[in-house]
Amino acid sequence: MNYKISDTIVAISTPPGSGAIGVVRLSGDKAIEIADKIFFGKNLIKAKANQNFYGKIKSSEDQILDECMASIFRSPRSYTKEDVVEFACHGSDYILSSLLKLTLSLGARLAEPGEFTLRAYLNGQLDLAQSEAVADLIASKSEAQHKLAMNQLRGGVSNTISEMRNRLIEFASLIELENDFGEEDVEFANRDQLINQVNQMLVELKVLSKSFDLGNAIKDGIPVAIVGKPNAGKSTLLNALLKDDKAIVSPIAGTTRDVVEDTISINGKLYRFLDTAGLRETTDQIENIGILKAKEKIEKSSIVLFLSELRDDHLSIDKEFKDLHLAKDKKAIILLTKSDLFDHSCHAYDIEEAISTLNNRIPVLNISVEKNQNLDKLVELLDTSVNELSTGHNEVIISSARHYQSLENTIDALNKVLMGLSSSIPSDIIALDIRHALNSLGEISGEIQTDDLLDSIFSNFCIGK
Amino acid sequence: MNYKISDTIVAISTPPGSGAIGVVRLSGDKAIEIADKIFFGKNLIKAKANQNFYGKIKSSEDQILDECMASIFRSPRSYTKEDVVEFACHGSDYILSSLLKLTLSLGARLAEPGEFTLRAYLNGQLDLAQSEAVADLIASKSEAQHKLAMNQLRGGVSNTISEMRNRLIEFASLIELENDFGEEDVEFANRDQLINQVNQMLVELKVLSKSFDLGNAIKDGIPVAIVGKPNAGKSTLLNALLKDDKAIVSPIAGTTRDVVEDTISINGKLYRFLDTAGLRETTDQIENIGILKAKEKIEKSSIVLFLSELRDDHLSIDKEFKDLHLAKDKKAIILLTKSDLFDHSCHAYDIEEAISTLNNRIPVLNISVEKNQNLDKLVELLDTSVNELSTGHNEVIISSARHYQSLENTIDALNKVLMGLSSSIPSDIIALDIRHALNSLGEISGEIQTDDLLDSIFSNFCIGK
Fold first, then answer.
1. Contact B137 A88 (CB under 8 A)
2. Degrees, nearest 5: CA angle B76-B80-B82
3. CATH code at A9-126
4. pTM here?
């Protein structure tokens, strides 16, 4: 990444391909000067900010490259806080790349991925967590992803981290004060009170750190393992959910074209269905090898859909399900499939009720993909499960692995602080651990930064943002 | 196509996919009213035209869909001459499609392909030939295509047609005047003068119509047939030209990704290389079947590259070339290949000179792809050939098959007028043919239009333009 903020940078900011409108964006000290040299119809140097001007872009005296609109933004009232010019041209690759070359020949430099946002960060427009949210926002494919990113962009994560950091700084100053008077063996702060403070912070940090499970699930798609014997109706269900999605998503072509296979947005939530081909049956016993294979997928999932044919008896279904040995906090739904092929009165009892009772009121649903029975209820149950995953988290949810790592490092450091306070470790050693905690926390919003860190963040952006 | 111009239309105007910026555009009476309902940060109804406003788009009371820039254009100072609002959002499919749905729920209608430009045409902003140029401009992939489209957009074709049409109208009024006084057997205009006028117009129309060969070649790529025996180095040359192109085109990734295979932009001109696998040799005689196969490609091409190994003697090369029986106006270049493998002093004479002399000073060039010898000269020769194709045409070049057909119809009608004037056909019959000519000419710029015509033109546009 190039950190020469004195350069004027340029990029095509709209997606590649032909379209009605294509935008080329310049940012930097010379943005307006360069734009003015090629734009005819308005003196951009004298032009008012935040206005649109119609004019011609000329590549030479008598060669008109395009008729377009130019918008001027003057420092500091722009995305980057620098002077910015945006040309809205006809969306032709030829025109946009020619315009780009034209600005390069006049002294602009091709922007690196995310460099506009990097400048917004370096110039104090956004902090680091907010900058990352910009990329998440652009990449978001579901309502839940979008909400997460928008919340982070609007300072949700940053404010929480900043508030914690202020408390930690206050705390640090108390300890450092003790250091200054170290010779005199003064204790400015009551140790028990300090321990309480750290404990309280640890509780909050752990809640935040734990929210990454959900945040990550929302961002990458809530992982749902579909488990069951091969003829339980697993792929039929998957196809039905996929088809359903195609109808639901949006009337706009191309909206979900580039999603990963088996990732589906239903009712504003992105699900990632994990295919488990595993559960094979030999002489009515589930093979251990099959279970082992499925275990991995189950481990990674937030929700498990366990499928079994409705015609099986409730005890064998229950045994199969229990053999999965699901962790206690794993959400599970038992689906009794092919309910259309089965005369419900044949079971002399309410099979759903029976299984549900055996399994601590777990949701049990009979479905028929063929007859479209209860598929709407399944979607409702998935929805409820996701909402249950969210409870216990306050508004702020961490969705970045980087933030998660920084939080874990902060927690580690604070645990050391706690140990130090509880034993007779000198306060200057404790102060060192506090500083570690402060640094780790500061990395999230970017108070603490390194070039490597910035590189790894902004290189994932698209060019032009 | 929907011609309800009272509707307010909306579309995503940037190409599909994630990007830094995505634009949603509204046009129509209610554009500003609808936009104002979802945009917070500025009262758009009272807002000044041609300005950018920063604000939030809310999908409900407490749901922020995006932070974006809104631009307002007020009728008639906009692309469509209607009220127009453009939202420049984060380029996320989710955000853009949600915004689209939001405007639809407030009474906007999804725009059909090209409907913004259709309105620009119906509202008198552009004529039909200029409207078509908008689509050509967006699709253009080479400097030559771009120049052609830009010239047409700026009225090049329209002005010429309009000028011709005025002359024809004047001419028609003379003939119609005769009709009004028909009983009295008056001749208001000297027949010989009239015949001269029509002849003059026919000459000009034919030049214009003939320019379609070049216009079409530029638009679709100048067709170049590569002819020669299989081991003459044909594919090696093609690959070299393709590779060359990749280096030349532009430093921007993706610029030429979606070109048709074997279509290459070199020095601002788009070439379409036609592979001829045909010319096989049996006992030193070129098979007739091979020639027949190659003939078709040669027929379609504007330029023929004939390849032969340099080591062959000039008489047999000359014979092979003559066996192609190229039409007189076909541009041809003879390439003597693998010149690096051959000691030039072995020919006791200048072989290029010898062949060139035998063929009316046709360009002959020895090349070696391996050693990169004379490839630059070949590109120069191609360039020259295209420029020679252009000579004889004035500035205005027809590139649309529709315009070509209308011109041919005009020519047909005027030929009938000519026949009428030369014989004793009554002037009311002649007037009918003149009206046919006028109608055909009027179709080009859209003075004469039908819904079918508009449908066929605008359905080829991208949505959002």
1. no
2. 45
3. 3.30.1360.120
4. 0.78
